[in-house]
Amino acid sequence: MKELSLLILGLTLTAAIGNAQPAKRTSAWTYLNDKQYAKAIECINVAAKHESTIQDPKTWHFRAMIYHDIAINEDTAVQALANDALTESLESVKKSNEFDAKKKFKDKNNMILKDLALFFFNTGIDNYNAAVQLMRDDAEASNLNFTKALSRLDQYFESVKLMGLDSVYVIYELAKYNINYLDIYQYAGTAADQIGKKQRAKSLYNGLVEMKYDGSLAYINYADILVQEEDIDAALEIIDKGKANVSDPDRAKDLTIKELQIYQQAGKLDDLIAKLEKALTDDPKNINLAITLAESYFTISEKFADDKKVDEADQFREKAIETFNNSLSLLGEEDNELKFLINNKIGTIYFNKGVDIYNASLDLRDAEKEEEIKKVYMGYFEQAIPYLEKSMEIKPGDKTAIPLLINIYLRKGDMEKVTELTKLKNQ
Length: 427
Hints:
Layout: H1 23-33, H2 37-47, H3 57-72, H4 76-79, H5 85-99, H6 106-134, H7 139-163, H8 168-175, H9 181-194, H10 198-210, H11 216-228, H12 232-245, H13 249-266, H14 269-282, H15 287-306, H16 310-330, H17 336-360, H18 367-394, H19 402-412, H20 415-426
C-alpha cells in the first residue's frame, strides 16, 4: 500500500473585533492576541457557558480562533493546553454558524474551516502513512492508526461541506501539491475497509463510482467487499464501471486482472474462459495479467480433473504451463522472486501430474502396460526436473523443491543425486 505525501501548510488567519463585547469574551480575545492561550481558553469557555453570550455567534467564532491557533502552534506546551484543539475549533465553528442567522460570520468561519480542512487532511494522512508502515508488523497498532486516519478524514469532509461553495479554495490548495481531492475519499475508504467498517467503505467507494473516479483501487476494493458479501454480479458490475472510467492503461489492466480473479473465485468457468482468451490476446506482454491467466487456466484444469474430464484438464494444464513460460520470458534480471515462484510452480505441476499417473498405475497387473505407463509418468517427472532445479538455483535457501526432486531421482535410480539432495535438505 502506497504512502502519501503531506501538505506543507503555513496559513494564517486574521479576524477583527467589532464593538465592545461582554468582559470575558473581550478578555479572551485580548489574551489570544497576546498569545496567552491558557487564559484565553479560560475566559472563552466561561463566555461559552454564560447565558448572555452562549448563543452569540461571535463567542463561538472567537473560541474557534483560539483553538485553531493552539492547534497550529509549534510549541508542544501550547498544544498540550487542549486534548484535541482541531476538533474543538471545528465544533466551535459549527456552533457559531448555528447561531449566526444573519450569516455575519460566514466568511470568517469559512477562513477557519479552510485551514482546518487542510490540517485534518494532513493529520489524517499522517495517521494513514503510519498505519501502512505498521501493517505487516503490528496489526493492532496499524488498525488504531487507520481508525484515527478515518476520523480525521471524516472531519475534513465535514469541514469542506460546511464551507459550501467556498470549498473550492481547499480543492485549489490541494491541487497546488498535486493532490486530487477525490483521492481523499479513496484513502478514507481504504481506512474504513481496513478496520472492518465495510458499509462506510462501500459508501465512500460508491460515491467515487458515481463521480466516475479515474483510479482503479476504489473499484477493486469495492468489488472485493461485494465478493465477500457473495454478490458476484454486483462486483463484476463495479469492475465494468471502473474499466469505463479509468484512463491509465496500467490501472485498467489491474481491473482486468481483478475481474478474472472474481470469475475464478465464483466458479463461473464458461464466462472466465471467454474472458481469459480475450485478455491474453489483447495484452500478451503484461506480466501480472500473464501470471493471473496462468493461475486461472490451472484452476480450470483442476476443476476438470475433479470432474474426471481428463482431456479438458490436460488441455488447460498445458495452457497454464505455456502461459507461465510466457510470463518467464517477460521478466527482467531483477525479478528473481517471480522467477523462483514460476519455476517452482511449473515444476510442481509436472510433478503432480506424474504422481497422479503413477498412483493410477499401482493396481495394474499387466507388465507391458506398466512399462508403457511408466514412460508416461517418468516423462512428466523429467519435465519437472529443470524447473525445480532452476528454482533452487534462483533461491538456494528454499527447500520446497527438494522432496519432489528426491522422489523423482529415487524413481530414476540416481542415488548419487538422492544423497546430494538429502544432505541439502538436512542442512
